[in-house]
Write a structure and sequence with these properties.
Strand content: over 45%
Order of helices and strands: EEH
Number of helices: 1
Shape: globular
Strand order of the largest sheet: 1-2
Helix content: 10-25%
Organism: Cytobacillus dafuensis (Bacillus dafuensis)
Distance between the termini: 27 Å
Structural class: mainly beta
Radius of gyration: 12 Å
Protein name: Nucleoside triphosphate hydrolase
Keywords: ATP-binding, Hydrolase, Nucleotide-binding, Transport
Family: Belongs to the ABC transporter superfamily.
GO molecular function: ATP binding; hydrolase activity
Number of domains: 1
Length: 49
């Protein structure tokens, strides 16, 4: 039984030739509170988009 609201596996993102995310995995359980934290420019917004 899947109880995940969000499941991300192997997320990758590049802007032109610059790879900004590589191999990001995470899962968020239904009903849980989740925060994606990191310094400016660490790929937080890119991961959510």
């Amino acid at each position: 039984m899947q109880n995940k609201s969000i499941q991300v596996k192997g997320l990758q993102m590049s802007y032109k030739k610059l790879q900004v995310l590589k191999g990001v995995d995470f899962e968020v359980d239904k009903g849980s509170i989740f925060a994606l934290l990191g310094s400016n420019g660490a790929g937080n917004t890119t991961a959510v988009e």
